[in-house]
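Give me structure tokens for this 367-residue protein.
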Amino acid sequence: MDTMEQHQELEQEAIGPALPPPSAAQKSELFEEHNVEYELINGIPCYQPDHVVDGQVQIFERIGYDDKVGGTFLGLSADGKELVVRVAPIDALTHVVRAEAAFLCKVEAELQDWRLFSQVHKIFLTDDAWHMSLYFRGGPTLEQCFAMRNKFTLGTAGRLAEDVLNVIRCAHKHGYLVRNMDLNSFHYDAASRHLFMADISSLVKNISGDDGAPIASYAGCLDYAPCSDDGLVGARQDLETWFYQLVHLVLGELPWGSLSREEAGVKKAEFQKSKEFAELPEVFHKIAEVVIAKEYSVVEEEEYVKLAGLTEQIYKELGGVTDHEENMDFEREPTPDELPRFVACRADEIPTIAEEEEPAVEEENSE
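Here you go.
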């Protein structure tokens, strides 16, 4: 795997890591060239199935395509690894895909942060595009998990909220804003039994203007949009949108979910005085005191620690979950028919390959 040391930084004004130097290992694990005709759309290749990109990856199918966020494909590496391939125009140094690469390389330099996002497989350049391949991590989206119940218990909602909070905290630590809490941006990894953020196209550098206010705009759905009148997002607003997501998972439906943009904004601003908010457990009120603020204030480290403790209180004290191995609301134990079955026998009863082939040899000799 490419490490952070292999990714030399581009010039200061560019966004994204430089290409790693070619190595013998990379050259030995290449596909034979197989070109399937494709076209460039606004500078981004629209690859077709079975096309081999620079010998590095064989395209399986296209799963996303947008001028602003680049092309997204599923593919295979030469050694059989399943990959997600992100593609950007060759001449756009500040394209979203390069920003994603810069962020992921920073994340991988930290010991545990990589678990919260996808991992970089390779970064390479062709004559007409800039590519980043990621190791594919399967699992349903949080939206799919939520659709199974449409409302989670505090034990499940609290654990999932803790995962999303860790994602936000990690992004902020590296100087980025998330801007999007959409349920489809997060996937549930059944192996680790935690959420990770798969779609990071909304992440941007946390940069403030001359007046100290952030210059990034909100990029998610209306349900979780912050109360700020100008639609700008700082670290505090990221946490506010996270809180609305948590409330959604617990209530099943937000009080402003079916309202127009203007009506939803008014309802959201008055939420802390509403009946729905009053009926939430006290721990939710304590979280709201930290995250819902109109000003663009810096989030201090002790505030992240406080939110982590309050979130833990939701699933431990209120939800009664003290073991992360307990099933989420959308999980179940396998039935006996789904479990693997093994035939028990003594070692001397297990036939060897030679013994299995012997009758066939004797039959040939008898002829």
